[in-house]
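Field notebook, page 262. I keep forgetting to write these up properly, so this time I am using the form the group agreed on. The chain and the ligand, D-MYO-inositol-1-phosphate, are recorded exactly as supplied. Prediction of the bound pose follows.
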Amino acid sequence: MNDFLRLAEDIAREAGDMLLAKRPTMSAVVETKSSPTDVVTALDTASEQLIRERIEAARPGDRILGEEGGEAPGESDVRWIVDPIDGTVNFLYGLPEWAVSIAVEVGGRVVAGVVNIPARGEVFTAALGEGAFLGGARLRCNTGVPLAQALVATGFGYGQARRAVQGRVVAGVLPRVRDIRRGGSCAIDLCSLAAGRVDAYYERGINPWDYGAAGLVATESGARLGGLNGRPVSPDFALCAAPGLFEELHDLLVTLDPERDA
Ligand code: IPD
C-alpha cells in the first residue's frame, strides 16, 4: 500500500511543480465543458497527460479514471483516480486554492490518496488504516462540535438548475451554523476538514476524482463520509464531518434538499 502512496505522491508533486512553473504563461488558454461556467485550461489537459504517462510507465495495465480523459479500459483491479487540477476556476484566477489529486483504488476501495496544493506548499496524504498526514503531522478532524457552532464548507455545480437548488439549500443551512465557506475545491475542502480548518463539508453532484483521494484523507482523520439516508458517498451526494455533527447536519440537509432521495 505504501508503494502506491509513494508513487502517487511523487507523481502529484511532479504535476504540481509543472503547473506552478507554467501557470504564469499558459493558464489563460481556456475551453468550456458542460456549461459556460465549467472551464478546462490547457494545463488541466497537460497535467492529466503527465500523470497518465507516469502511471502507465510505472504500473502498465492498471486502469486510470481522469477528469479530462475519462477511463481507459483495463483488466487490473487497481484503478487510479485523477483530478489534474481540482479548483480550476481558482487556478484560472490566480487564487491559491487548487490541487492535484490522485487516489489509488484496489478492488473498488480507495487505499491511498494524495492531495497536493502547490501554491500553498501543502501535500496531504493518507493510506487506508494508516492515518492522514500533512507533511509529517498526523491529522485529526474536529470532534464534539455542535451544528450551531460548525464552520461548514460546501460547493456548487456548474449547471444553472443545480445551482438554483443549491442556493436554496445553503440558504436553509446558513442560519443554523457558525458560517459557510465556499473554497472552490472539493479536495481542499475535505483536506481542510481533516486538518480542523472547517468542521463539515457537503455538496450535491461531485465526481469521484473530486473526492477520491481527499475522502480517504478525511476518513483517516476520524471523519465520517457518506451520502444521504444511509447511502454511501457517490457522485450524487457527499457529506463529511465527525460522527455526531455528521448526523446533525444530515438531518438538516434531508429537510432542505428536494433531491434527498437521490
Ligand atoms: C470543482 C471543485 C468545486 C466543486 C465543483 C467541482 P473542478 O472541481 O471541486 O469546489 O464545487 O463541484 O466540479 O471543476 O475545479 O475540477
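OBSERVATIONS:
- The pocket of D-MYO-inositol-1-phosphate is lined by residues 67, 83, 86-88, 155-157, 184-186, 203, 206, 210 (CB under 6 Å).
- DSSP finds seven helices and 15 strands in the chain.
FOLLOW-UP: compare against the apo run.
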